[in-house]
Amino acid sequence: MTAADAAIQYARDHRDQFLSDFKELVRIPSISTLPERQGDMQRAAEWVAGQLTKLGFDPVQIVPTEKHPIVFGEYRHAPKGAPTILFYGHYDVQPVDPVELWKSDPFEPTVRGDDLFARGASDMKGQVIAHMKAVEAMVRTEGLPVNLKYLIEGEEEIGSPNIGKFVGDYKAKLASDFCLNADTNILAPDIPAITYGLRGLAYYEIRVQGAAADLHSGSFGGAVDNPAMVLSQVLGGMRDADGRITLPGYYDRVRPLTDEERAEMAKLPQDDAWWMKASGTKVLFGEEGFTATERATARPTLEINGLLSGFTGVGSKTVLPARAMAKISMRLVPDQTPQDARRALDAYLKKAMPPTVTWEVEDLAGCTPAIVRRDSPAVKAARQALEKVWGRAPLFSRQGGSVPVVSLIQDMLGLDSLMLGFGLPDDNLHAPNEKQHLPNFFRGIEAYIWFSHMVAA
Amino acid sequence: MTAADAAIQYARDHRDQFLSDFKELVRIPSISTLPERQGDMQRAAEWVAGQLTKLGFDPVQIVPTEKHPIVFGEYRHAPKGAPTILFYGHYDVQPVDPVELWKSDPFEPTVRGDDLFARGASDMKGQVIAHMKAVEAMVRTEGLPVNLKYLIEGEEEIGSPNIGKFVGDYKAKLASDFCLNADTNILAPDIPAITYGLRGLAYYEIRVQGAAADLHSGSFGGAVDNPAMVLSQVLGGMRDADGRITLPGYYDRVRPLTDEERAEMAKLPQDDAWWMKASGTKVLFGEEGFTATERATARPTLEINGLLSGFTGVGSKTVLPARAMAKISMRLVPDQTPQDARRALDAYLKKAMPPTVTWEVEDLAGCTPAIVRRDSPAVKAARQALEKVWGRAPLFSRQGGSVPVVSLIQDMLGLDSLMLGFGLPDDNLHAPNEKQHLPNFFRGIEAYIWFSHMVAA
Question: Which candidate from A210, A304, A321 shows the least CB-CB separation from B310?
């Protein structure tokens, strides 16, 4: 019996206890955005720190920030030459509104069928617990073959405002070989997957001003320009009929998809029918020449996220608006940067905006895209571990979304992040009836055990 | 001394009394939109009816409607063959918010310099009083040379929801030669003017739906279409670079401006500098080949009045909106109709909307444009009357706005409306510190006296 086998056996023998600890953590309503949950936030941080202490992490620190504390812990008992992994997770959760749509109390974890229903079950207390239980299984049997550093924050759901300062302050202590980010999912219960790419983000607000104040559209319509019309024309011109973004130079630094990548992507269970069902649309649309999966994960986009001008209430008001506003965002792919996006946007706007309006652009959010080499030791180990547990090779997928902490860890610590977590796409994240698929949770624990051994080998 | 001279003398001798009656009416806070002013609405209607009774109108009726009563009165003592005029006015006023911006109590009329400040002073109690005082001056001297029917409603500021039913019920009683609508202004204290045209209106809400619900722009951006982008492109395509509306057939029924009309318009004090100042813009814009005044009063337009989609709060939310909405309106000129506008819009949308969205259009408001022949007896009499009082020929102007009651009286009674009132463009209608220029008020009374005699001649 190998060390890994012993740990697996421990994990199988302690499933009831693991589930009980999982329930204990999700019972704490650690909603980071609600000021009245301050005490619960502290409680959740202490709960996580307590578990790490029990596992032998040393030191274990609850580091205060301007808002919610970060739990930091180190476990350095691996054999010489073993890799050091920075494990990233968060203990905060989203609010539960509309609470009346929950079938059971969001903070009273309830098992129905294969699923545990609770706020945070999948995003991401379940993933944090799964990894801690894998650590427990190894620590309680033949030991942990890797060194670990834990960074569990309490502000992911509010945009991680204070993690940058922490990472700066703890830069030396966080030094590792790579980051394991568990805040992700696989594709289906029977389809293991590794996320090797994330899109970046560049988010802007564009404000257009015409007249000094709203005018009567009867008195002034025809004499002066309408900023809502200007904005519509300017925004409309950002995308051509083939779905390509027209901002000058926008595609210059886009890394082309290799044939091999496209072949891998074609194996994913996300065909057109899947995308139509998942999005609730009857017709898909996007850049000519790419599949929906490629377009949504490995090609850059430009979306209008918000539009506001003039009168938007019930009925009619004959206003010629003085102002119009759009929020737009681009999803970036390697090797685009938010700075590239801003340059392309500015170049476009300078040409497109007419002299009849004034305008300004505000930078609201941004992060660089991320990609991990699929032949890196961490990815190889993850592939082997998933195959071991699921009995089939994992698929490689890129995600369309952005995980700012991955960019931050890349930029500040120079570490790639391996995305390995065991949620599912239909776990109702941020929505009523969030759940964690329990067979996945237990398979995840085993996968983390195998992964630790394989990456150390 | 002619009959007109005698009435003019009476009017000059009774200015103090006229002003005092004017103040009495504006003291009644007859805000039609506020339910708590129901009693004041009734009081204002009774005040108007009482004045008519004192002047010898018979019958004088306060006709209940579903909301605020309409005052109807007849005066039929003119010599045989005299014309019958339907006088239109309203006794209701706008709300006074923000009340803290008023320099004096909106319902305690206050004279500062040449102006009487009070809510309703110009819009339009001052105009109703001016005409009633002209009638008084004639009735108390050598008699009224015309027959009069008064229609004074209490719902103009809330869109006249009940006047249509009243006009239908009173169709026979309202039969007249033409309508005198006093709900208008001249161009400046020393520039008399007659409004001979009004634009019509066709107001729509366009709703576009993409996915069934809002999606995450990271997960789905690139795979499905964005209804806010579709709407921007569709709206943006409605106007070309020369400011012309592109809806198919939109200009087909537009009556061209004659050279004579354009020459008259060129005399108006509304040059580019005036439009820039009035609108608070540094650059004007509109249909190529027309002056700003022509564009804003005698050419049709299409404006976006409102835009709404996705997230419009502070900060960023990475939503791919499911819905986008625009309110758009067209100002119509003779001989366009709202039905023509709807046909042109539908034809355009059917071509422009892509199959990736569903969409619908709601009809929110509409009225036909109006134009009065400048050589009609009523317009001729008005021109003579204004020249008599001001010592200079009036200018002829068209207004960019719409006065739905003019369309209604045209459509239901077949009567042209002469727009003759004595407000000013800067009277702060619907705004704090509304005022009536008093020299204009007194000149208006004399103009109504002369007009009555000249139209009867």
Answer: A304
pLDDT, one tens digit per residue, over A138-184 is 999 999 999 999 999 999 998 899 999 999 999 999 999 999 999 99
CA dihedral (B182, B188, B194, B200) positive or negative: negative
ipTM > 0.90 (yes/no): no
Q: Which residues of A are less than 8 Å from B401 in CB distance?
A: 216, 218-219, 318
Choose the closest CB to B232 out of A225, A280, A304.
Answer: A304
Averaged pLDDT of chain B: 96
Q: List pLDDT tens digits, range B335-352.
A: 999 999 999 999 999 999
Residue of B nearest to A245 (CA): B222
Would the CB atoms of A305 and B318 count as touching at under 8 Å?
yes
Q: What is the pTM of this model?
A: 0.88
Q: Would you call A212 helix, strand, or coil by DSSP?
A: coil
Residue B310 to residue A315, Cβ atoms within 8 A? no
B315/A364 Cβ within 8 A: yes
Contact B312 A318 (CB under 8 A): no
Res. B316 pLDDT band, cuts 50 70 90: confident
Q: Which of B215, B284, B356 minimises the CB distance to A223?
A: B284
**B297: Cβ–Cβ under 8 A, 6 or more apart, which residues?**
A222, B197, B199, B265, B397, B398, B399, B400
Asked if the Cβ–Cβ distance from B222 to A311 is below 8 Å, we say no
CB contact under 8 A, A229 and B218: no
Q: B364: which chain A residues are within 8 Å (Cβ-Cβ)?
A: 315-316
Closest-CA residue in chain A for B430? Answer: A216
Within B237-327, residue ranges assigned H as helices are 259-266, 272-279, 292-297
Q: Are B362 and B204 in contact (CB under 8 A)?
A: yes
What confidence tens digit (pLDDT) does each residue in A379-398 have? 999 999 999 999 999 999 99
Which tokens is A361 given?
Answer: 């652009």
Q: Which residues contact A354 (CB under 8 A, 6 or more apart)?
A: A225, A230, B285
The 8-class DSSP code of residue A269 comes to S
Cα separation, B149 vs B159, in Å, equals 22
Distance CA A112, CA B55 (A): 84
Helix axes B438-456, B3-13, angle to 10 degrees: 160
CA-CA distances (angstroms) from residue B58 to A18, B52, B148, B175?
93, 8, 11, 16
Give the nearest partner residue to B311 out of A212, A228, A327, using CB atoms: A327
**DSSP per-residue string spanning B307-341:** EEEE--SSS---EE-SEEEEEEEEEE-TT--HHHH
Burial class (CB in 10 A: 0-12, 13-18, 19+), A142: middle
Q: State which amino acid sits at residue B258.
A: T
Work out the minimum CA distance from B407 to partner chain A, whole angstroms: 15
* Distance (Å) from the alpha carbon of B77 to chain A's nearest alpha carbon: 40
Q: What is the pLDDT of residue B265?
A: 93
Q: Quick one: closest CA in B to A352, which residue?
A: B241
**Phi/psi of residue A276, nearest 5 degrees:** -65, -45
Q: Name the pairing type of β-strands A323-332 and A301-310.
A: antiparallel
Chain B environment of A275 (Cβ under 8 Å): 220, 223-224
Q: How many C-beta atoms surround the C-beta of residue A385 within 10 A?
A: 25
Cα(B350)–Cα(A413) distance, integer angstroms: 54
